[in-house]
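Predict structure. Chain length: 317.
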Amino acid sequence: MDRPLSSSTKLIVALLLTQVAVGGSYAQQTAIYQLTFESNWSPATHPSNFPSNAHFSGLIGTTHNASVSYWTPGQVASGGIKQMAETGSKSELIQIFNTTDDSQLSDTRISEGGLGLSPGSLAFAFSASASHPLLTLVSMIAPSPDWFVGVSGLSLMDANGWIPSIEVDLYAYDAGTDSGESYASANLVTQPPVAISRLVESPFKVNGGVPRIGRFVLTRQSVTSVEDLPSAFRLFSAYPNPFMHEVTVEYELVGWENVRIDVFDLVGRRVETLFEGRVNPGRHQVRWPASEQNKGAYIIRLQSESQSSTQMVHLVK
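Prediction complete.
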């Protein structure tokens, strides 16, 4: 099983891979991964004052390139990480991700449910493009003052391409924004905030060691590759993404084309055809009202007479 790279090696590899991906054979590749979040955090593994309602908040993250980092041990937490670690809220991190998406630094957004009871597990699928092969994903440890688990800039690619499988042990981090020392501590603002750090003392130190509280298991499901498309044939980023009720899909054509826009689930079944017909040159949009569909990830495909483009959207409820 692959071992996670050190932070410095990971950054160097990510920078090289991003350059290769943009200019080389990986340029148009997209991979779909299944991620399983397994929590073993329990009174047996962490007996010191273990809370009766132990759980994890909803997972929030994004794929991105090496030009941006959303949290790093040794650096002060952003407002989004602070909010997530203290309350489990995703809203400020989503705003940060949307800003970097506008700058083409981030790509696929991940917003999933949490674990309502620990120990436990959940699984979901997401896509990553070769131009944005790094994964950042976090979840609040609850209840806690400002503790969380996650990965920062985990590379899904190595010198051989998309990594088939990755296991990452998860340990508790302190966001450095609340000075509480126990799960049930009252709010005690750390002013000024201190750097994010891994928690290595009670309640996570057990018999002289610090056992993991869970792991992420990533398994590559598929890799797709398409030829370079003319710049005027483009499927823009759907918005909002993730979405709760309706998502807007925008696309651009260089000339008159017969096009079809379909939605597929992750096993390849066509869920719905959003549009089929002849369209004039320029930018167009369609909407998918999906409130009657099950939550999860879907693939939207724009198909013309000679070309196609796809992207993943996430329906949350």
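Summary: The two ends are 34 Å apart (CA to CA).
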